[in-house]
Amino acid sequence: MENPLQLSFVNFKKDSYIIVEGKQNADRFFIIRSGKVRLSKEVEVVEEEGGNTLGPGDFFGVVSTMSSHSHIETAQAVTDCTLISVQREQFGLLIEKNTPVAMKIILQFSKRMRYLDEALMRLTLKNTAEADPSHLFRVAEYYAKQSQYNQAYFAYYQYLKFCPNGQHVALAGERLGKIKPYSKAVFLDGSNEEFNRFYPKDTMVFSEGMPGSELYIIQKGSVKITKILDNNEVLLAVLKPGDIFGEMAILENKVRSASAVAFEDAYLFAVNKANFERMVQTQPQIVTRLTTLLSERIWFIYKQLANTLISDPLGRMYDALLMQLEKNRIPLKSGAAYSFDIGPKELIGLVGLPAGEGNLVIHKLLDNSKFKLQENKLMVTDVTEIEKQTEYYRKMQKIERARKEGASAASY
To answer: Phi-psi bin for 57: left (phi > 0), alpha (psi -120 to 50), beta?
Structure first.
């Protein structure tokens, strides 16, 4: 028997609150049928692209609902409005019956993702340069200096391929020859035959700055997403089996904004543009998964943007660890220990600190007796300590902000 999609309509009076930021258990999102809705955040780090007022056909609450996290925004009715309420478990059905809605959500998400990503880069790393293929040479040089020859070889190779007339062609060619015996780079030109691919640990799937034509689904192993900035490798994420990455290239035809490297031996399934459009129509569960992952990533970037507002670097580290706990859905039970799958180097990368300064802050973190290093991974003996410390630093930040606002108001 066919499962009918039953969507409910809900009405909200002008000025009433529809969703409230920070509230747990988002289980439904809304599509506006008539009227206007305004979105706001307690800490507005960047203005939303296209503004914060939504109208008919727009949707909100998808990020928190599909990622099963707390709400990242407050929605208030600007006029009387009628909304279509969609529960999380109805999403697959909604897509099956309505591919264009699914594509609209995914494309909007991918745009929002890139916009937020760029905002985050501007704030944390004071970097505004859009990557282009000439950047591949800088990526290669960084890895060559670190003696990471798989990544260096891959990036030199792509530089020569995409910048045949670039200013560093002779040098790149020479270095490529020198490091070839020490490198085991794979799938340098992708493959139109092999969609199931094996990437040994520390080999590159793609490099920032290169054009892309595939997204990847991790079958086994893990992949880290990184970016080279100011001669530092910044860790953006570690992805696990079931995760999808590289979708921007398919959705937006832009060059890769970050690199993907096998964190351990990784088995990946590659999907190109033609396959993707077929998959959207025939496999709604893949679209649901992609929406869930994009939601997860957007939710995480909002949290990272809020993290940039904490001025004390130790406070930023506690907040980044709290994000990891919420991301991995670890309940905050008093006395519960937890081992993170990241070490000091990755944590320093997550908060975007230079290595020297970052190591000093790590020492301060480890002065807290509830933290230890086990095989170079961080471990906490009581997860609630992280919440407690984060709350303290956020509170300090609020006081500091109020003081500054008071001082600047007084100076008028």
So the answer is: left
Comparing 400 with 264, the larger pLDDT belongs to 264
Cβ–Cβ < 8 Å for 215, 268: no
DSSP string, 275-295: HHHHHHHH-HHHHHHHHHHHH
Domain range for residue 27? 8-97
- Cα–Cα distance between 85 and 71 in angstroms, integer? 16
What CATH number does the domain containing 27 carry? 2.60.120.10
Nearest 5°: phi and psi at 165? -110, 20
How many other C-beta atoms are found inside a 10 Å radius of the C-beta of residue 340? 18
Same domain (yes/no): 281, 341: no
- Using pLDDT thresholds of 50, 70 and 90, give the confidence band for residue 346: confident
Q: What is the C-alpha separation between 70 and 24, in angstroms, rounded?
A: 4
How far is C-alpha 107 from the geometric centre of its chain's CA atoms? Answer: 16
| pLDDT, average across residues 308-317 | 91
- d(C-alpha 245, C-alpha 234), whole Å: 17
Please work out, in degrees rounded to the nearest 5, the angle formed at the alpha carbon of residue 151 by the alpha carbons of 263 and 124: 70
Give the pLDDT score at 125.
Answer: 59
